[in-house]
Amino acid sequence: MTRMMKKSNLLVHLFMIEFCVVMFYPLLWWIGASFKSMAEIGLPTLFPKEWLWQNYTEGWVALPKYTFTRFFMNSLKLNVATTVLHAVTASLVAFGFARLTFPLKGLWFSVLLMTLMLPGQVTLIPQYTMFHSFDWINTYLPLIVPSAMGGAFFIFLMVQFIRGIPRELDESAKIDGCSLFGIYLRIIMPLTLPALITVTIFSFIWGWDDYFGPLIYLNTVGTYTVPLALRMFIDSQSAVAWGQLLAMSLLSVLPPVLIFFLAQKHFVEGIATTGLKG
């Protein structure tokens, strides 16, 4: 029985190793291709014969008038604003749904969940018309202001987490003279830190990778985010410098990956506890 278990474990580990190799191969090819010359891009080799570090230096300043420093700063400022708004407003709205009693509470929560099933394309034209009437086109306001609504997914996640926090803590705080906002700020917020970090990570990654929103609302190159800047490698040249494009796209994924690994412990805790509670 022991030998059979060992053989079974060996087969499982071999399968997992092969699976990891298959999963990591595109990433390894991407890293290697970012250092290749145009002549080597189409070759089936994983890594180049000659490593061209200038793909990164030339790619950083390849676009006319602007460097990728500008585009990274645009994306960073935009996503920091949306992430903070998502975390603050989602926790406030979730606290109301999880702890307060008000008329038609169940109906409004159902409406909130129904918005999760509504495709973004359905509301695109009305939103664009509204923001155009506000004279917000070619600004970051159409991308930032909706974040002040919290986001249905983030509110739902926070509600599930807050429902798992004992109400006795609220009652004890009330006895000590704590106000309703004080309960939210001093009791709920510290206890929901894992869920807040989960909201922060999701919001930042989704915002950083967003291509469609900036494409619709931003018109001038100086306001472009990183995804739009990467598109210009293809649109502005008849012969695409694939090495530079792959190098800049590889750098563009580093911020969300870094944030995920730095907050991985809290992220996993937030997902796990949200799934168990509520």
From TrEMBL:
Alphabetical list of Pfam families matching this protein: BPD_transp_1
Chain ranges of the ABC transmembrane type-1 domain: 72-263
Subcellular location: Cell membrane
Keyword annotations from UniProtKB, A to Z: Cell membrane, Membrane, Transmembrane, Transmembrane helix, Transport
Membrane-traversing stretches: 12-31, 80-100, 107-128, 140-162, 183-208, 214-233, 245-263
Membrane topology: Multi-pass membrane protein
Stated family: Belongs to the binding-protein-dependent transport system permease family.
The protein, known as: Carbohydrate ABC transporter permease
Organism: Paenibacillus solisilvae
